[in-house]
Structure formats: structure tokens, C-alpha cells
Amino acid sequence: MTLKRFSHFALIVVVSLAFSVSAEAAASKKKIDRRVVKALVEFHQVVGNADELLARAQGVLIFPNIKKGGIGIGAEVGSGALQINGETVAYYSSYTASIGFQLGFQVRRQIFLFLQQEALDRFRASSNWEIGVDGSVTLVTLDAGGEISSETFDDPVIAFVFGGKGLMYNLTLEGSKISEIHPD
Length: 184
Prior knowledge:
Elements: H1 3-25, H2 29-46, H3 50-56, E1 59-84, E2 87-114, H4 117-125, E3 129-130, E4 138-141, E5 157-169, E6 177-181
Parallel strand pairs: 4-5
Antiparallel strand pairs: 1-2, 2-5, 2-6, 3-6
């Protein structure tokens, strides 16, 4: 691939992601809620003891549709909901921009379990929570039928990544910025 073709392809990816950002920002509460329910159903299918893990959490942040793409320059975007005791209490967006070795496009689901009240309180008090800066997160990637011991995790926040469609090299949550949104 020539440099000119690579530049055109990279530009197409960046423009496509920009449209995804504006579409995610415009998602309604009903649309986000519908996607959250689907993500939780899939989480129960993928994790054998999902009920135990969810019951242990002080809060659950569900991003049902994270889109990530890039060629050297990349972006990741999604919107979701924070649930406490099974009820949605707020809506959030997640955004990451990156430069480095990355290639592809992927759509996946992410669920953050806040296992300590202090971690949940810090998250909710932050206006622009950044993973790796404002909070440490243990990342778990899942395949169907996995069972995770809830006693294994001592960290205050664990993130589950599952349901990936597409191919993306360079899976990380570091640098993701999560901000509260107020959809219609």
C-alpha cells in the first residue's frame, strides 16, 4: 500500500469514527437502556456466575456498544449507563483517542464493576474520569462459558470486555475518559 493510499484509508477511518462519536452522543435514554439490557443478557450468557459478581458490585457501569477503530491514529467511543441496585442512575460517554501501533475496527461491550463504595464515589464525583489516572481498573476479557471467582479480585474496579465483533489489534482501556451525559 502506498503512502497516499494509506493516508486516504486513515482519513476514511477517522471521519467514520467522527460520525460515530456524534451518533453516540445523540443516543436517547431509551436507546441506551435497550442496549444496556441486551449487554446484561449477554454478560449472563458469557459469565456463569454473573449474578454473584453483579450482587457484589456497589455500582455497574455498562457500555453496550463501544466502537474502536484506527490505523496508526485511532479513536474509541460509546455511551452507556450506571446502575446501582439494578436501577439506572446516570448516563455516561466513553472516549479515547490514541496514536501508535493499531489497526482495524471493532465493536464490543464493556462492563465496569465498582467493588468498593469509595471507588464508586470517586467516579461519580469526577467530571471526566480517566482510566489509569483517576482510577485503576483490572481488565478481564471473556469468551463464552467463563466463570470468574468474585473472591479473586481485590481491586476496587474490574472491567469485563466481551462480545467483540470485528478485528482490532491493541486492546487497552488505559486513557479512556468517561464523562456524564444527559441524553433526551
